[in-house]
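step: validate -> pass
step: tokenize input -> pass
step: predict -> running
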Amino acid sequence: MPTFKAVVIDKTEAAQSVRLADFDAKDLMDGDVDVRPEWSTVNYKDGLALTGKAPVVRRFPMIAGIDFAGTVESSSHPGWRAGDQVILNGWGLGETHLGAYAQKARVKGDWLVRLPASMAARDAMAIGTAGYTAMLAVMALERDGITPARGAVVVTGAAGGVGSVAVALLAKLGYAVTASTGRPAEAPYLKELGAAEVIDRKELSGQPRPLAKERWAGGIDTVGSATLANVLSMTRYGGSVAACGLAGGMDLPVTVAPFILRGVSLRGIDSVMCALPLRQEAWRRLETDLDRGKMATMTNEIALADVIDAGRRIVEGQVRGRIVVKIA
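step: predict -> pass
step: emit ->
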């Protein structure tokens, strides 16, 4: 395959451009495994990269896309051989290393996770980095002792990719989930995923108080800024909040009060450089702890040629749930 189709981001001093183009295989970066990506997905981070709304991409030209599922074509890595089905999330893919929106990828074998036996590649990308991040957040709450018996948990940005999977995961595990969203029309969708309560994001977007009335045992926040500060101020004594997003901003207008007066923990969730054993555990849990039927209701499929428009829509808050991208 001397050339292949790819979504390529480039940049001049004047502006960033993005297009579906022919990419020469000789320009692939170093790696010990060649993979044929079969499915990818559109995450919020992909949208930021495609639109240039944030400096996600660190080298140009760049093939966009931060995750894929596909089949190994050739390998000099001892852990992989031709025909293996694999998943890749993060490790700079689509940021510093040529990414997933392409018919060919060359990557490091140490970055790969084996596709779970009961999943097809499309299933894995319906989950994608958003779902894998949600699972890491759930696991962080569990490590802090936040069980269903402790009380309700809140998920912010609940109609988005991470939020939707977080709601579905927590509900299946027996938690009473409060889903916060800025799109009230999505309440039936969130209830279908398992939310016990849906609240307007306005309840969490005002000026944060140092301590507010205790409402939740824990939470998963995908928004950041004032929303995360409000969630922390409303978390019960000994509770925990997992933070994994910044759609509302990178600032955190909070005092130390929740931490030193209520013993609240704030856990940062990083999916990009996460250690391999934790990645493998997360994908094992996703195989058993996520309702595939609910995933089907939240997933839409597009072609590679539709990725650029989907990136714009996800940044503008027009996407519900998950988008899978058929690469072939």
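step: describe -> The chain has two domains: 3-115+298-326, 129-268.
step: cleanup -> pass
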